[in-house]
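Exercise 3.2. Students should predict the tertiary structure of the chain below and write it as structure tokens, then compare their answer with the key that follows.

Predict this chain's 3D structure.
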Amino acid sequence: MSQEATIRPATEADVDELVAMWAQYMRAHALNPAYRMLRADALETRRRIFQRRIEEATGAVFVLEDEDGGLDGMIVCFVEENEPYFDPPRYVRIQTPFVRREARRRGYLNRLLQKTFEWAAEWEAAEVRLYTGADNLVANAVADELGFEAIEVVRRRPLENEPMMHWED
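Answer key:
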């Protein structure tokens, strides 16, 4: 892969490769509790989401295209409404920033993020939010280095077949 990779908006023709990269992303994070609960139709559902993000005005998928036309990275972003009692009223959410292992350490993630920041500015967004797995130490360290501030932690507790816990007052 050349250092001259191109960042461009994804098209419908990219969807198969986007889904393949997403599957690779899921496998890489298989120990994350959220990612190990994929449904049987997860790939087809994700395909439809990629298609929607590519088609809709309030979403975008940017890809890292190498000289041969193959894709070595992606990032998904979309405008999301905030809770009505918080500012800003809307922000841009970043999902699935991913660069294939063989293309890493060349500044491509920074370039994908920069493209996302430019897209967010076009929407006059006051901020972007990047969601990372709590267990992903590398992603969280990179997010810190890039100036992302942790603002919440999402915790999960399955209820099915779980004994209720009793807290002492």
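Discussion points: The chain has one domain: 6-145. The domain at 6-145 is CATH 3.40.630.30 (Aminopeptidase).
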